[in-house]
Amino acid sequence: MSFYIxxxxxxDLEGITKHLMIVGEVTADCANCRELGIDYAQIRNCxxxxxDFRFIASRSTGKLDRGRGAxxxxxxxxxxxxxxxxxxxxxxxxxxxxxxxxxx
Length: 104
Ligand SMILES: [Zn+2]
Prior knowledge:
The chain is built from 3 helices and 4 strands, in the order αβββαβα. The protein is an alpha/beta fold. The longest helix is centred in the C-terminal third of the chain and has 16 residues, at 87-102.
C-alpha cells in the first residue's frame, strides 16, 4: 500500500507558473496564459501558449481533504509525469508576490 505525503521543497515561483496547470471541477486551466477548459488527463502542452506542463495543482484539495484524499490520487493516477503542488501554498505565495509588486 502506498501513500501520498507532502514534501516541502525550495521552488522558483516563476518557473512553476510557466509550467503549471490548475485543475478545477472537471477541466484545468493554464497558469501561464489562463487558457481554460484543458483536459488535464491528456494534454501535455497548452493549446494556446504552447508551454509544456510540468506541475499540476488542484483547487479541490487543501482545506477539505488536506491533500491526502481522493483528489490527489485521482489526478496522480492520470498524470504521474507531473509534480503535484499544493494549491493553497501556491495561492498564498503568488498573493504575497503580487502584493509586493503592487507596492513597488
Ligand atoms: Zn497556456
